[in-house]
Structures are given as C-alpha cells and as structure tokens.
Amino acid sequence: MDANHAGYSGTGFCNTDSASGAAARFTVEAAGSGTATVKIRYANGGSSDRPADIVVNGARAQSISFKATGAWADWATATVTLRLKAGDNAISLTATGSDGLPNIDYLDVTPGAA
Ligand code: GCU
To answer: Does the residue 16 lie in any domain?
Structure first.
C-alpha cells in the first residue's frame, strides 16, 4: 500500500510488484447471486496499457486492459459486469503483463448489470 500519488480515496492505494502474476485480491459480499457491476478505480501513469485477468472465486471471469491515464495522480474507472454468488466473493486482479497492475484505489460493487 502506497500513498505517494495524490487523488486516492481512503488511506492509500495498492501498488503491486512490476511482474506478471502480481495480484490484488478483494472480498466483496453480495446479498444474492447474479450479475454485479464492478467499478475499478485505478491510475496507470506508465506509457502502456496494463493487461490483467479478473478472477472471481478462483475462476477467470474475463481479461481487462487498464489504459494509461497519463500520470500516477490521474485516476480512472474501469467498469465490468461479473457474476457473483450470495455471500462472500473473492475478486482478484492478476497482472498478465510484466509491468504488473496499475495502482488500484478501490472496487465499487453494485447489484445488476451496467
Ligand atoms: C512508479 C510509481 C508507482 C507505480 C510504478 C509502476 O514507480 O511511483 O506508484 O506503481 O511506477 O510502474 O507500477
């Protein structure tokens, strides 16, 4: 967890190692099973997009590419639709490129498709 680039929420953001396989895991609770809209707030001040897998409860749900945001203090939101089960769900973002993940601020989960 780092806090050296402005604009994050809370007390900091997640900065993974710059390596494929680097991951951030979140546990989110769903009241019932079904689709959920998941917003991922991130900053990618690197020069290229950063690809990752989104893994839900151990199964790869989809891939995503976090676009460059121009600077580490410039934050953006990527929105995906995922299927969740009732109760606790493990959502992992796993880098598939050698740069690792972008800096991750938070996940915001709401029931229903985007
Ligand atoms: C810089 C930046 C970090 C970022 C890293 C990266 O070191 O300060 O916040 O995580 O680049 O390329 O991922």
So the answer is: no
Can you give the pLDDT at residue 53? 98
Mutate to test the pocket of ligand 1, among 72, 74, 98 (most ligand atoms within 8 A of CB): 72
Structural domain containing residue 104: 23-111
Residue with tokens 């989960």: 109
CA of 39 to the centre of ligand 1 (A): 21
Ligand 1 atom with the smallest distance to the CA of 103 is: 10
How much is the pLDDT for 74? Answer: 98
Stretches where the chain sits below pLDDT 70 are none
Determine, yes or no, domain membership for 27: yes
